Amino acid sequence: MKMMSGTLPKTALERRQRGIELMKGEPDAKPPIRLALLSTFTLDALTPFLVEALDRKGLRGVIKLGEFGQIAQSILNPESDLYLSKPDGVIIIPAFEDLFDAIYNDPKKYSEDEIDALFQERVEEVKQWVEMVLERLPEAVCLLLTWMPDHLPLEHILDPEAPSRGQKYSEKWSDSLRQIGEISPRAVIVDWAHHVSRFGIRTFSDPRLWYLGRMRLNPDGLAAISDLVAAHIAAYRNMAKKVAVVDLDNTLWGGIIGEDGISRLVLGEEGVGLAYMDFQREIRKLHDAGIVLAICSKNNPDDAWSVFEEHQAMILDKSHFACARINWQDKATNLREISKELNLGLDSFVFFDDNPVERDWIRTALPEVEVPEMPEDPAYRPRFIREMTSFQRIQLTEEDLQRADSYKAESLRNQLKSSLTSLDDFLASLDQLVKIAPVHAGSLARAAQMCQRTNQFNLTTKRFTLADLEKMSAASSHELYTVSVKDRYGDSGITGLGILRFEADEAHIDIFLLSCRVLGRKIEDGLLAFLVDRARARGARVIYGYYFPTAKNGQVADFYERNGFSNVAESQFQLDLDQASLEFPASMQFEIEGIT
Amino acid sequence: MKDRVKQLMAKTFNIPTSDIADDAEINALASWDSLSHMILMLELESEFGVSIPTEKMTTLISLDLIDAFLEESGVQAGNEDPEGLVKK
């Protein structure tokens, strides 16, 4: 079980000790993520810090350090330990000082042309490293760190453009590395240089450690670089939280509406009021990036809504929130209800509340909800939200942008559902249009994201990666289809995936999944009917479906049997294609794209 | 004071306190190597509120020497932190 965030150590040295403790621990059921680390300088001390930082992200890390200073040897030799160990990720940390040590040693010795040439050579070299790692480890992610040197080659020359000063090269170095991220979605840039620019390199280094141990980073630096790497790995694995639940009084505004009244709330263009406005701006940015917003507040609803309607300085309005619980019942009950109404698991929730008692209560009652320790002082909160890693993703997909709206629609649908008695009436009233299309370059990333993220309606829970899907969609043995759903409340975008694998006269359904946003609407029956038709069209005689139970997918245990398949072996279900055919549900329209 | 240093070493090296003899020194203890030594020096600074010069770091290579250094630096046995300034 994950420790509560309130009890995690704060200082770097304590975090190191916790990391060592974690490394000792019994390997639990959680499969590890194995990372190989290549750097131009010694990073032996990093391992416990990185293990600890990954644990905070719910990941069990197993770290393998390369010999420092031997990045090229490890990468170029196809038989090196790096490739034999088949890591899930390779982290490359090239320090500017190490790659340009000749210039550091004698800055005046080289002409500008010579430095330019060396610089180009180095950039090309790093690019080749990344390309080779991606090619030789087709499943792995390659993380490349930008770098902020401890000092410049010749600080006594002030002109920032002077070649011997080296500043322009240091800055161009990070810029050039950032470009390398464009070669593949599996090349992920970790912008350490940018991170350091916020804190200053001196908070992260200690000359004594350099002279005695050739350590370029002190414990604070090791902890910071580990947090940054861990955040990127979590983001790459699509582990971002989906829902932000906010309290109202002293969270969205200063003061208590029920006591102070609207005119005395602290919210406006000046002083602390501006900090509250900025906090709201940050929350709105989450909404705009596809995070679903909800309210959970102990208040009289009329009082609370009056602020949204009447206060001139409110940034957020009612329409930003997919659902709200403004009442006097306990917040754990409210969060459970919100989870149900949105059809989203509590483990995708982050709960913001200024009141430490409420925070502790949620941590105790609902340990799966993330409860950040918001700073006591409102002035520090906008920055706190900006720098949170819980919502981070590497890139935004189209669906991310639509998500918040589509959950709001889901909440409206659920309200409509309770007013209509028969499910079919309800479904018909939605005017659903279900579009099924083969996976193409533009939908590949979303398909991979669903493989990684979908838990509940996922028959096989095979966590195929982008690289896997890329391979399959190019192979004639596989057919990959996405499902997107539109209805009178909005467009849910791509929310389902089915993968057929053909072998002789058999078809196998390797992936069958739907996002929880579109569950309970018979869309699954339509997708299955479609896959069965496809299998028959390709000449298959029999189609097999699989159900592999997990802690979360119990609701689909009988899915195939409900649809006329028979259980022929453990986890395996069969339908003979020369006999049976499945009906498309009548309560919706289907549009099949690109099938010839 | 020696006991408190021992406890700190046990935490730093992640071994039981009982493994640390009164005459413990670097390299005699498997987990006390040059890397963990650096970390131990930082732990001492943070635990006892002292500052250790670089040269000194290279010489504090036994429990006795560390103990003596802390005494020299005015850290008092049994009541190292009368004002509670050092976090536990």
Question: How would you characterize this protein structure?
Answer:
- The complex is a heterodimer of chains A (596) and B (88).
- Chain A has 596 residues and is α/β, with parallel strands linked by helices.
- In chain A, 41% of the residues lie in helices and 18% in strands.
- Chain A contains 23 helices and 18 strands.
- In chain A, the strands form three sheets. In chain A, strands 10, 11, 12, 13, 14, 15, 16, 17 and 18 form a nine-stranded mixed beta sheet that branches. Chain A has a five-stranded parallel beta sheet with strand order 2-1-3-4-5, sandwiched between helices.
- In chain A, a hairpin with a 2-residue loop joins strand 12 (478-487) and strand 13 (490-503).
- Chain A is globular.
- By secondary structure, chain B is an all-alpha fold.
- Chain B has helices at residues 2-13, 34-48, 54-59, 63-72.
- In chain B, helix 1 (2-13) crosses helix 2 (34-48).
- The radius of gyration of chain B is 12 Å and the shape is globular.
- Chain A binds chain B through residues 11, 13, 16-17, 20-21, 24, 44-45, 207-209, 211-213, 215, 218-219, and chain B through 11-12, 14, 34-35, 38-39, 42-43, 46, 54, 57-58, 87.
Main interface pair? A-B, 18 and 14 residues
* Oligomer description: heterodimer
- The level of helicity of chain A is 40-55%
Give the end-to-end Cα distance of chain A, rounded to a whole number of Å. Answer: 50 Å
The termini of chain B sit apart by 15 Å
The total strand number of chain A stands at 18
Helix content of chain B: 40-55%
The average pLDDT score of chain B comes to 86
Beta-strand content bin of chain B: under 5%
Instruction: Please give the radius of gyration of chain A in angstroms.
Output: 27 Å
Along the chain, the helix and strand elements of chain B come as HHHH
Q: Helix- and strand-based class of chain A? A: alpha/beta
Low-pLDDT stretches of chain B are none
